[in-house]
Amino acid sequence: MMDTRLSLALEAGHVALPEVGDIAVFGASGQVLTGLPAERLVLICDDVIAAESYKAQGYHVQVEPPESAALGLVFVPRGRIEGRVMFARAAALAAGKLIVDGAKTDGIDSHFKELRARGDCTAAYSKAHGKVFACDVTAEALADWAEQGEGGENEAGFFTVPGVFSSVKADEGSLLLAEALPDNLGKHVADLGAGWGYLSRAVLTRESVEELHLVEASSAALSCAKRNLPDVRAQFHWADATRWEPKFNFDTVVMNPPFHVGRKGVPELGQQFIDSAANILKGMGKLYMVANRHLPYEDILRERFKFVEEIGGNTRFKLLHAAKPSRKR
Ligand SMILES: C[S@@+](CC[C@H](N)C(=O)[O-])C[C@H]1O[C@@H](n2cnc3c(N)ncnc32)[C@H](O)[C@@H]1O
Question: Is the pLDDT of residue 74 over 80?
Fold first, then answer.
């Protein structure tokens, strides 16, 4: 089995697991869980892709934290507030017993400083550009961080929580696309990577729409979308849009596809979204999408659609319309 920063810290005795009881794991998304007792782990996964991958490996995975556990193990996420919220939730369910593992690039040094000021932390074990430490900290000491996780209304008037895409205000690309959408979108519409529902709300203003299917990998974002779109026409799917197989085909797909995994730019992800859009559209179906100008989407669009045109944008974003998907590859 592959050694990890955490398995090395455990082996060296820098941190120790409780002898009995569940271990609630926050922030697991692709980490190798070497050195941990698999049968005692409860993985709390927001991302459907991570959740399915861990499930396939036999782990117990759930979206909501359990009521209690003997330990809260936190793999620090990218966002600082998101990390704080995880510490607060972990401390609340595990009577303040935490183990924290994180990379420097994800701000582990400042998390360590902040937690030491509020609780009783061990010295940090440093390895592979990151740190592992244990901390005993009461939920009361982190109450303000728990509150930050409750979310609220953002600048666009939508409910969001920390950690979801563009939580503070609507993305500029999505704003442009929402303005450019035609009045008639047909009866059946899908929003791939729907986030907290900005584009979807614009779709639902169209009278032609009878059903809108929002497909989103982040459970937190999808929960926000549910709250933002109390409309019987909206249906919500916690699913990987690149593998989603609906029961029928759509008149229109709208999307502002992702092109990052973590910090890494992965334009192939947007290309897979285009492929999926073509697969789920009717023969005369239409795709409306927005993308950063530099992203290489035109080739796959021409490969998968008979008609492709740019319908606007600005120096940063391009708005693309494609129609008549060619047969499934
Ligand atoms: C650029 S954001 C657009 C969000 C929303 N449509 C908007 O306009 O605000 C892309 C969204 O895709 C989601 N996402 C990333 N990978 C995904 C996947 N494989 N399947 C479904 N959604 C995914 C992200 O969580 C994010 O909410």
Answer: yes
